[in-house]
Design brief:
single chain; 231 residues; alpha/beta; Alpha/beta knot; five-stranded parallel beta sheet; 9 helices; binds 4-amino-N-(4-chlorobenzyl)-1,2,5-oxadiazole-3-carboxamide
């Protein structure tokens, strides 16, 4: 899976994306994250990427030309146009289901905006879909892009070492994860549920399924409804 990220802050990506699991996945050649600096495609000596909005209003708008040229640089020579995602609060809110779909793509281009917005012609011409990571407003699209890269990359076979535990993963089967415990069996007088020490795997699985259902019903009735519909 290859992510080409069009951004004004490429160094942010290099830092975060070479750490931990994503970093190891890159070393294994399972994932490739390229940060492309939109500023490298400006044509003036001040490397201008934004300008005042037509019609007035506060703030600046990202201009077409540097983004179009950065896009062309990334896609030249490719026989198919990769899916282009613009990270924006106006997009469809990212879910695990969408992450699973996205993880089947070979190549994604993520566009990270800044300022008050990007010129609409960029969205009309280049963007296939807008994706939001939640209904709140951030200063730019870099963190959302990293969130998307993280949740998509971990679904790629070989990226997670413990893929076995994968199917239990909360939000994977649509339910929240059951409670987890580790040693010691009693910490400052607080015990671990007996069932988990019993070694009865069938009973443990049953208890965990009940816990997942119960906490989903309590914490996320919306997900619980979805789950009941899907049954
Ligand atoms: N929430 C979100 N989910 O995805 N992105 C966001 C978000 O707030 N982006 C900030 C942003 C996005 C585009 C531009 Cl031009 C400026 C600022």
């Amino acid at each position: 899976m290859k992510f080409d990220v069009l951004t004004l802050f490429p160094e942010t990506f290099e830092l975060v994306m070479k750490e931990s699991i994503i970093g190891r996945a890159q070393e294994k050649g399972l994932v490739e994250v390229n940060a492309i600096d939109i500023r490298d495609y400006t044509k003036d000596k001040h490397r201008k990427v934004d300008d005042y909005p037509f019609g007035g209003g506060s703030g600046m708008v990202m201009m077409c030309q540097p983004v179009f040229d950065a896009f062309r640089a990334v896609t030249q020579g490719l026989d198919t146009k990769p899916r282009v995602i613009f990270m924006s609060p106006q997009g469809r809110v990212l879910t695990q289901k969408m992450a699973v779909e996205l993880s089947k793509e070979e190549h994604l281009i993520l566009l990270c905006g800044h300022y008050e917005g990007i010129d609409e012609r960029i969205i009309e011409e280049l963007v296939d879909e807008e994706i939001s990571i939640g209904d709140y407003v951030l200063t730019g699209g870099e963190l959302p892009a990293m969130v998307l890269i993280d949740c998509v990359s971990r679904l790629i076979p070989g990226v997670l070492s413990s893929e076995g535990s994968f199917s239990d993963e909360s939000h994977f089967n649509g339910l929240l994860e059951y409670p987890q415990y580790t040693r010691p069996a009693e910490y400052e007088g607080r015990p671990v549920p007996e069932i988990l020490l019993s070694g009865h795997h069938a009973n443990i699985q049953k208890w965990r399924a009940e816990q997942s259902l119960e906490r989903t019903r309590k914490k996320r009735p919306d997900l619980y409804e979805e789950y009941l519909k899907g049954k």
